[in-house]
UniProtKB/TrEMBL annotation:
Residues 17-252 form the ABC transporter domain. PANTHER family: LINEARMYCIN RESISTANCE ATP-BINDING PROTEIN LNRL. InterPro entries: AAA+_ATPase, ABC_transporter-like_ATP-bd, P-loop_NTPase. It comes from Litorilituus sediminis. The lineage of its organism: Bacteria, Pseudomonadati, Pseudomonadota, Gammaproteobacteria, Alteromonadales. Keywords: ATP-binding, Nucleotide-binding. This is ABC transporter ATP-binding protein. It comes from the Bacteria. One of its GO terms (molecular function) is ATP hydrolysis activity.
Length: 334
């Protein structure tokens, strides 16, 4: 695999990492855990990597941050600072942090001792070490438990310590492999809020999770993996805008075929009628102008409409649709 560090103007001007056709197969496996995956990670944004267990999410993160070496493909890093470009390995060590699924600290040490140890690895200056320690404790809301042993902490605080250790080196790019797994909803939201703050500070986040509501809240772009392949790549805001729908229910005694035909003609071609119940109509909407046209038609015969519900397709729907399409293709191939 080729890994290059380039000035940003040689990549897309907003890109910080660009990967092309990455492939990786573990020893003794007869299949690729990552299979010709390409992606573009923009500076200051959050990329979500989603998919079922075994899809290749953790392997892809390991390839991007240098823990694994791909058999094929290329990764290009933009220069991560206004200085002479560093080697790929030096760029990783200085500007990139990984927050793994597993706890990455010493359980017998306190929070403060853990942070002091990891900070000393990357920062030799004692004064800066103290500043980084205070910053990490404050940022992750750990100051009041700093003297507690790590193994005595709740799951939520252990996850915060994992994040604090990564932040203690002041990274520009942060890889997060399911950072909220196994914790309660309040702790999960605290961590999501922290990640939103990091994003607002201009940090670049690459994030895996099975919690699709988190992905929708945090991420700008997503990539959906299935058996090592990228089966969907999308911009979340575009997905929401381009996947609007109106669900209509008509009074049984006031179904107007001509009115329904008008609505269907104004909507996107993929609109659906519930075959089991003629009272229900689902209209797919491509854009705002189409939505306005449909609502204008609706206003002409409001008396026949029992209920109207407007919705934007969620990431859940994108996930299920893409996965269903993949399974259908497999069935056809069989």
């Amino acid at each position: 695999m080729d890994i290059n560090v380039q000035s940003e103007n040689k990549l897309n001007h907003t890109s910080i990492i660009h990967a092309k056709d990455l492939s990786f197969k573990y020893p003794n496996n007869d299949y690729y855990s990552v299979n010709k995956v390409s992606l573009d990670i923009k500076r200051g944004q959050c990329l979500g990597i989603i998919g079922p267990n075994g899809a290749g999410k953790s392997t892809l993160i390991s390839l991007l941050c240098g823990l694994l070496k791909a058999e094929q493909g290329q990764v290009d890093f933009a220069s991560l600072a206004d200085e002479k470009p560093l080697s790929w390995q030096a760029s990783i060590e200085k500007y990139v942090a990984l927050i793994p699924q597993e706890y990455a600290f010493y359980p017998e040490l306190s929070i403060k001792q853990n942070l002091e140890y990891f900070i000393a690895i990357s920062e030799p200056n004692r004064k800066k070490q103290k500043q980084l320690l205070e910053q990490a404790l404050n940022q992750c809301q750990l100051t009041h438990v700093a003297k507690q042993k790590a193994d005595s902490l709740s799951g939520g605080y252990k996850r915060r310590l994992n994040i604090a250790i990564a932040l203690s080196k002041s990274p520009e790019v942060i890889f997060l492999d399911e950072p909220t797994v196994g914790i309660d909803p309040v702790s999960r939201q605290d961590i999501v809020d922290l990640l939103e703050q990091l994003k607002a500070q201009g940090k670049t986040l690459i994030y895996t999770s099975h919690m699709l509501n988190e992905v929708e809240q945090l991420c700008d772009d997503i990539i959906l993996l299935e058996q090592g392949k990228a089966i969907a790549v999308t911009d979340i805001s575009n997905n929401q805008r381009q996947n609007m729908q109106i669900n209509l229910e008509f009074f049984a005694d006031k179904i107007n075929a001509s009115f329904i035909a008008q609505l269907n003609s104004a909507a996107s071609p993929a609109s659906e009628k519930d075959s089991s119940n003629e009272q229900h109509l689902r209209l797919k909407v491509a854009d705002i102008s189409q939505l306005q046209q449909i609502m204008q038609i609706v206003s002409q015969d409001m008396s026949s409409i029992k209920s109207l519900h407007f919705a934007q397709n969620s990431i859940d729907q994108l996930y299920f649709d893409a996965y269903k399409n993949t399974q259908s293709s497999k069935d056809v191939a069989c």
